[in-house]
Amino acid sequence: MAKTLLMIGTQKGVFFLHSDEKRESWSLEGPILKGWKIQDVQLDQRSKARMYAAVGHFVYGQTIQISDDLGKTWQQVERGPRYAEDAGSELKDVWCVVPGRASEPDTVYAGVAEAGLFVSHDRGLSWSEMTGVSQHLSREEWIGGLGGLCCHTIIPHPDNPQRLWVAISAVGVLRSDDGGETFHVKNDGLIKVIEGKTHKDIGSCVHRMVIDPQNPDRLFQQNHRGVYRSDDGGDSWQTIESGLPGTFGFPIVVNPQQPDTLFTIPQESDEFRMAKDGVLSVYRTTDGGASWSPSRKGLPDNCYVGVLRQAMTVDSYPDCGVYFGTSGGQIYYSRNNGESWETMPCNLPRISSLSVAIIE
Amino acid sequence: MPELPVHIPGLLRNCTDNHGTVTVSGGTLQGCIDDLLHRYPLLKVHLFTEQGAQREHVLFYYNGENTRWLDDLNIPVKQGDEITVLQAVSGG
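^ inputs. structure came back:
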């Protein structure tokens, strides 16, 4: 029977929740890397399994740790992401670690703050900057959001090695069509939060972006100012908000087996950033965003929490599992594609990220 | 050349093979810090920025004195001296 592993990045370390494919009962492991702020944890199963953790600390800076035994032991990488001394940017956080395409199993990407993109071609042991992001022509007009000037989303096109998207808060979507050498802003149709003085195309605050796993021209994003879909690889964006109670939120995830089904968690405005009236609600679409409806059977009232951009994930079982963690340290999950929700048996530190793996 | 103990905070002991105290050698205080980074290179990213500056909230204490207040780290050290790495936490 397959094992299900939920990997949890928190303000105080990594935790794991273990289950089987039924996902009825769970056992908690952790804290691991205790005391470190964990912005992301990913298990790369493309070749020999390797786990990556983006770790940081207010005093001691940021780096990446790797584990080859499913998180039992960890090793700090010797040549992690670092800007050159004269780059003009400072590494303030490693936001995400993203395995590359199936065709390049040794390649891994990392998105950082101050906004930049790094790549490793040796499974995370050494990293170099892809300067097309941090040296973008509009860079001097970029202004970070509340979470900092962060490159939080990286999406390699699954089939085209020349195409790669990144998303940066308060800047927008950037796409490369030359293997990451240069990037072009792809914000057409997105509302701006603060446009550039001369670069009028920047200034859209994308909070999270996902790709349709069956149609790589189709992208979805939860933005500071709305929810959007692109059907042309980001060249243009259309609003998909029918049925949503508001436009502000952070995470968005797509069911990998049914890519017209997506989930998001609206929050009460950028001023308050928590469940409106304490009614914690997931919203689901089953028609590619044409309409949304609430899904909250099993979720609590009197729950004044937020959900961060990387703190929601889905598994790839036929009866899709959906998981999200809150700023209050609770985890809720569905074993039936969002029909109903259950509560994980734990209360953890503030949750930064969730990812889930099925281990055969 | 004198050998000095360096006390390492708990969070950084993954960089020193889980040792809370390690030994370095050097003729000067700067030489000892250089030797620390040579022996345990994973520490560098945690103690210094990309530009080579000591991280704002990292402190080196030399025989109980904050090295930030020293004019020059190229001062001779002697057997029996010690160095402590601390995080500057003065409040919540």
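The longest strand of chain B covers residues 3-7. The interface with chain A takes residues 10-12, 14-15, 41-42, 45-47, 49-52, 55, 57-58, 87-89 of chain B (CB under 8 Å).
thumbs up if we can close this ticket
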